[in-house]
Design a protein that fits this description.
binds zinc ion; globular; 3-stranded antiparallel β-sheet; about 100 residues; alpha+beta; two-stranded antiparallel sheet; single chain
Length: about 100
């Protein structure tokens, strides 16, 4: 029997996607904003596509600030960028890249 895939809405494009295709950002009870890689941290969460276009969109529109009522530090955006850069280079390996790698000759 196929399991129902839980879907969440991206704060940037408002598209519904499977949880594993999204990154979870959590405002901890201590008032910190963290990237929840495990998806299990407690606190108020917001989801965003694992795509740079959505990160940039959320950054511009301040969607995360609005949803979580918290200031997003520059360091967090850099951390998000880093995650994408790592994923594109194949590290860590538990995530499938969303787009096929382009070859330039
Ligand atoms: Zn999105």
């Amino acid at each position: 029997m196929p399991k129902k895939i839980p879907e969440r809405m991206c704060v940037a494009c408002r598209g519904m996607k499977a949880k594993k295709e999204l990154l979870r950002l959590v405002r901890t009870p201590e008032g910190q904003l963290i990237i929840d890689v495990s998806g299990k941290k407690s606190g108020r969460g917001a989801y965003i596509c694992r795509e740079e276009s959505c990160i940039n969109k959320a950054r511009k529109s301040r969607a995360i600030e609005r949803v979580l009522s918290i200031k997003v530090e520059e360091a967090l955006w850099q951390e998000l960028q880093l995650i994408f850069t790592q994923e594109r280079s194949g590290v860590p390996a538990q995530f499938e890249p969303l787009l096929p790698k382009k070859e330039y000759n």
